[in-house]
């Protein structure tokens, strides 16, 4: 029975997975994911795809906020830059998707670098306000740079093709998305075993102390923005291929708040938390929609109330988690797990 | 006088009138920040709340105007107490991200509840002032703008008298200055926190009413206007009441001038973004604003 971490070598300490069980679990999960498109309906595949995209985006935001402690309300702008760069690179330049998405992610990183510059001078809420402003400026550019982004008319993105096979259905895009979700999770997991990841955590805990210990604040703060926006760029690129038409309205401030809520509800500074949060925030509106559909017989107006109910439930969930479970769903999960680990001798 | 000049003067006058409302919203924001160091990221929803409640009391319940205003303000005070007691007090001492997020949280609840109750259609707001413009020299001025500016001036004057002379106002200033000293002088800091939220919801409600009558209708886009308080308070200084008032007028003029002159070039929407461009520039040059306390930690 495992009661804690007892490691006698550095090798054991450095392992990503310290027992065989999580590896079995991950492999099993991957196997299940491989066959899911055969059985799931288009509706649920669409939900799964959006969960996958949200996981990548939330991981990126969690690296920035949860691990490095730099508050950003501009995540929707990052996603927009990623999505539009992918779209423009494919439509105007004619690149294939496997070049366009990475390139778009690099462009988004550069954008994140510019976003990150205020973080060198500003902290906490000032940085939050600066990123809020950056969000509005980005949206303005997207709406008004009509020659390239098509503005409010929407930018059509052609389906990605793999060996002549167009990824034009939810089932096919599913594989593309989850082929990127897995490395994104693994990379994040690995990042926090390295010097860079540890430097991020040191900056979050106390940046002055970190700089005394020799962490170059300029470099690592900007790096956090770069890595975070790279994830957002990938997520944006996948959004472009998932919805295949991009509107500025898909990247409002509310999207940024949704992502913030994901990492708060899931758990700040936790990879599992990012995943839980992404699942929670994507499934919540679907559950409300299903409830409303089943209620239409009794209460015909129910369907019109989905959006507002979602706002209320979302707000209450955020408030609840902040007050009673600040470490989010990830913490609840840990508690449940440790309860059952010692069962029936748990106390 | 030539047309160019008239055009500019007209933009400036409209800017001052709209800016006055921004000042009012920013006043609420700054009071909260001064008293409890909480940044309210849901100012728009508070404005929206005031606008909808006053719409409901005036047009739905058909109360006489003074009674309707009184009811709106009482409801706003209630909202302020609920927010402070229920949401922010339990989070005193939590990290900034939690406090920021919780303000987004209650803003979302307010938006949802308003949407559930009154739907998202534009509601025509009662015409409180005659729409006929009159001429100030050669410049046409709409009475709505004039009256909104006059009412803002009266309110701001009332608030400055309140802070200057009333016992409660002085207690609020003392708390903002130094919480510990205020506590030791027997001021209930908890009560001051609640009071600053009440004042904030009240001034937001008043801004909502004024904006509603200026625009002639209430809908959810009012909430976006609320976000303009960020450029205002950054320009004026996050913890300066005078800064909020002057900043509001300046940002109002800036957005109208840039909208008037740059919209033809960019094809519209400059008005919405210009204040935020200004915000970024101010943060880069002078993050504590015109009148804020110079207390930025450089890292």
What does this protein look like?
The complex is a heterodimer of chains A (347) and B (299). Chain A has 16 helices and four strands. Chain A is an all-alpha fold and 347 residues long. Chain A has a single domain, classed as ABC transporter involved in vitamin B12 uptake, BtuC (Orthogonal Bundle). In chain A, the strands form two sheets. A two-stranded antiparallel sheet of chain A has the order 1-4. Chain A has a two-stranded antiparallel sheet with strand order 2-3. In chain A, a hairpin with a 2-residue loop joins strand 2 (161-162) and strand 3 (165-166). In chain A, helix 3 (42-67) packs across helix 10 (195-205) and helix 4 packs parallel to helix 7. The two termini of chain A are 16 Å apart. Chain B has 299 residues and is mostly helical. Helix content of chain B is 74%, strand content 3%. A two-stranded antiparallel sheet of chain B has the order 1-4. Chain B has a two-stranded antiparallel sheet with strand order 2-3. In chain B, a hairpin with a 2-residue loop joins strand 2 and strand 3. In chain B, helix 1 crosses helix 10. The chains are: A mainly alpha (347), B mainly alpha (299). At the A-B interface, helix 6, helix 7, helix 11, helix 13 and helix 15 of A face helix 4, helix 10 and helix 12 of B.
CATH topology of chain A: ABC transporter involved in vitamin B12 uptake, BtuC
CATH class wording of chain B: Mainly Alpha
Residues in helices of chain B, as a percent range: over 70%
Q: What integer value in Å does the Rg of chain B equal?
A: 19 Å
Tally the helices of chain A: what do you get? 16
CATH architecture descriptor text of chain A: Orthogonal Bundle
- Number of beta strands of chain A: 4
CA-atom Rg of chain A in angstroms: 21 Å
**Rough outline of chain A:** globular
Strand % of chain B is under 5%
- The structural domain count of chain B equals 1
Catalogue the unreliable spans of chain A.
Answer: none
Strand content of chain A: under 5%
Return the CATH architecture of chain B. Orthogonal Bundle
H/E element sequence of chain B: HHHHEEEHHHHEHHHH
């Amino acid at each position: 029975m495992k009661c804690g971490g007892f490691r006698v070598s550095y090798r054991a300490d450095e392992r990503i997975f310290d027992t065989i069980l999580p590896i079995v679990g991950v492999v099993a999960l991957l196997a299940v994911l491989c066959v899911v498109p055969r059985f799931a309906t288009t509706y649920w595949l669409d939900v799964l795809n959006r969960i996958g995209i949200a996981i990548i985006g939330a991981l990126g935001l969690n690296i920035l906020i949860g691990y490095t402690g730099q508050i950003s309300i501009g995540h929707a702008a990052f996603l927009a830059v990623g999505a539009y760069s992918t779209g423009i690179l494919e439509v105007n330049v004619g690149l294939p998707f496997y070049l366009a998405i990475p390139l778009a992610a690099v462009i988004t990183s550069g954008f994140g670098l510019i976003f990150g510059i205020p973080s060198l001078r500003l902290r906490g809420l000032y940085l939050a306000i600066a990123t809020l402003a950056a969000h509005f400026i980005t949206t303005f550019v997207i709406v008004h740079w009509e020659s390239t982004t098509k503005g409010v008319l929407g930018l059509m993105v052609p389906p990605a093709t793999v060996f002549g096979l167009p990824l034009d259905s939810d089932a096919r895009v599913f594989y593309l998305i989850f082929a990127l979700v897995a490395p994104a999770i693994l990379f994040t997991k690995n990042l926090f075993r390295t010097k860079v990841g540890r430097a991020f955590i040191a900056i979050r805990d106390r940046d002055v102390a970190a700089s005394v210990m020799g962490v170059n604040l300029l470099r690592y703060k900007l790096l956090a923005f770069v890595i975070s926006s790279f994830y957002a760029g990938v997520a944006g690129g996948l959004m472009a291929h998932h919805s295949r038409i991009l509107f500025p309205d898909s990247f409002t401030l509310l999207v940024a708040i949704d992502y913030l809520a994901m990492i708060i509800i899931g758990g700040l500074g936790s990879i599992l938390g990012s995943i839980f949060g992404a699942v929670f925030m994507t499934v919540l509106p679907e559950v409300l929609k299903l409830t409303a559909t089943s209620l239409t017989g009794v209460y015909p107006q129910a369907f019109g109330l989905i959006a507002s109910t979602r706002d209320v439930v979302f707000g209450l969930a955020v408030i609840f988690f902040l007050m009673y479970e600040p470490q989010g769903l990830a913490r609840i999960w840990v508690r449940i797990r440790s309860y059952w680990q010692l069962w029936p001798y748990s106390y | 006088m030539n047309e160019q000049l008239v055009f500019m003067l007209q933009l400036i006058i409209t800017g001052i009138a709209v800016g006055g409302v921004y000042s009012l919203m920013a006043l609420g924001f700054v009071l909260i920040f001064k008293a409890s160091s909480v940044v309210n990221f849901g100012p728009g929803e508070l404005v929206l709340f005031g606008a909808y409640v006053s719409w409901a009391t005036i047009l739905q319940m058909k109360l006489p105007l003074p009674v309707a205003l009184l009811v709106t303000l009482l409801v706003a005070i209630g909202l302020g107490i609920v927010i402070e007691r229920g949401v922010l007090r339990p989070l005193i001492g939590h990290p900034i991200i939690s406090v920021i997020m919780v303000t987004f949280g209650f803003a979302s609840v307010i938006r949802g509840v308003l949407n559930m109750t009154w739907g998202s259609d534009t509601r025509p707001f009662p015409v409180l002032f005659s729409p006929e413009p009159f001429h100030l020299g050669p410049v046409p001025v709409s009475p709505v703008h004039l009256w909104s500016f006059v009412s803002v001036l009266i309110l701001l004057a009332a608030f400055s008298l309140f802070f200057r002379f009333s016992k409660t106002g002085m207690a609020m200033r003392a708390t903002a200055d130094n919480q510990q000293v205020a506590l030791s002088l027997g001021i209930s800091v908890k009560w001051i926190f609640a009071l600053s939220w009440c004042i904030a919801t009240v001034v937001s409600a008043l801004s909502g009413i004024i904006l509603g009558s200026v625009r002639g209708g209430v809908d959810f886009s009012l909430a976006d206007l609320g976000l303009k308080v960020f450029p205002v308070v950054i320009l004026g200084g996050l913890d300066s009441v005078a800064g909020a008032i002057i900043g509001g007028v300046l940002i109002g003029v800036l957005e109208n001038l840039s909208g008037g002159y740059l919209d033809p070039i960019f094809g519209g929407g400059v008005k919405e973004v210009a204040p935020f461009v200004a915000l970024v520039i101010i943060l880069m040059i002078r993050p504590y604003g015109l009148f804020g306390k110079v207390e930025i930690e450089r890292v």
